[in-house]
Design a protein that fits this description.
By secondary structure, the chain is of the alpha+beta class. The protein contains 17 helices and 5 strands. Strand 4 and strand 5 (413-421) form a beta hairpin.
Length: 442
Amino acid sequence: MNASRRIASLAVLIALCLLGLKATPLAAQAAASSTDSCTGPGQHYTMAEYNSYTAAANEKDSTAQLKALDDFVAKYPNSCLMNYIYPLYYQNYGNQKNYAKVMEYTDKEVALGAKSSDAEKLQAYSVRAFAYNHTQNPDAATSKSAYDAAVAGAKLVDTLPKPDGVAQDKFEADKKNILLNFNGTAANAALAAKDYPSAIAMYKVVLSTNPDDFVSYFNTGRAQLALTPPQQLDAIWSFARAATSKTATEQQSKAVKAYLPKVIANYQGGTVCDALSQAELNELLQLAATSPERPASYKLYSAADLAAAQKDMTIASVVTDLKAGGDKAKLTWTAACGLEFPEVPMKALEVTPGTEVVIKGAFVTSDAEFEAATTANMEFKITGQDDAGKIEKDSFVHITGTLESYDPDPSFMLHWDKAKVKDDDLPKPDKKPAKKAPAKKP
C-alpha cells in the first residue's frame, strides 16, 4: 500500500489547508441562552464547557490531554463542542500511530450529524482514510467500514467551498487529489474485504483520472481473477497493462511479466507449448501498451477452445488446417503445438546422421502420395537412436515426435522435437555367419 499511503498523506494535508477549519470554537457568551441545544444561530455552550475544552486543547502531554478529553466527555456528554473534541482525540491518537483509535474517533465526529459541518466531516473522512492506509493487515470488517467511509468522503468533496485567495485551477487540482485519495482507499479496502466487484469498479474510477497507474491495473487483475467465475481474459489484459505501465519500476514490470505466462497457461489449460506462449505474451504486451481497454479483435484461446480443437485431431487434420491459414490455422496450431503424435507416416528424403539425427521428409497417407513426394514438409530431430542415421533416402518410415514449430506456406514445414523412429523401420544390422566349432580330436 505504499503508493496509497503517499496519496493519503498528501490528500490529508491538502484537505486541512483547504478546509480552513477554525482551530477553536468562539468564546462562550457569559449568558448563553440555549445551553441545551446545538441548533439555531450561534454556539450554545457554557463558559465552563469552553474553559474545559480550551484546557484540553492546550495540553501538550499526550496522556494528560486524553485524560482531560475523557473528563470533558464524561461531564458534558451532549456538549455542542464535541465537533472540536473528537478531532483532538484523533489527532492525539494519530501522533501515537494508534490508527484503530483514530478511525474510532473520526467515526464519532461523522456520527454527530448536523452538529458537525460538511467541512469537518470531510476532514474526518480524510484522516480516516490516512489511518486505514497505515493499518497493517486490516481484517474484513475494518476494510468494509473503510470502503464505506471513503465512498462517503468522496461524495462530500463537491461541497467543499473554495477558500478566499486560492486560484480556481489550483483548487480544482487539489480537489482531484482528495478524490484520488478517497477512491484509491475505497478500491484497496474493497479488495481487502474481498468485495471484488466494488474493488474493480473503484479501481476503474481511479484509472479514469490516473490512466497509467501500475498499482490500480495490477490490483484490478487480482480482483478479476478472484471473481466467481473468474474474468480471466480481462485479468490477463489488466496485468499486461500493469507490466507496460510507465509508472511501474523495472522490478515491478519484470515481476508481472514473469507472472503473466502462468496466468495465461492456467487460462489455456497448460497445453500450449513454450515457444507459442512466448509469442502470445509478446503480442499481448505490444497491444496492451497502446490500449487501456482490451480490443474486441484480441483473441486468446481458452482451455475449452483448445480442448474442442484437439478432439479427434490427427496429424492429417493438422496439416490440412495449417495449410488453409486464417483463424482456423491459428486455433489448430495453438491446440497442436507441444503435442506428441505417434507414428507419423512419411517418405524420408534427406537424412543427416550425427549425435542428433535429422530426417527431412514428406508426410504421406497413400501409395500414390508416396510415389509422387519429392518435397519435404517435415523435419524430425532424433536423439539416442544412432541407427536412424542409417535410414536410406526414399525409405518409408513412421516417426513419433512432439510438434515444436512450423513454417507456413509457401515453404510449409513442420518441425518436430524428441522424435523416435519406429523400431521396425530401422535398418537391420548385417548378420555374420556363426563360427564353426573346432573338430574334436579322437
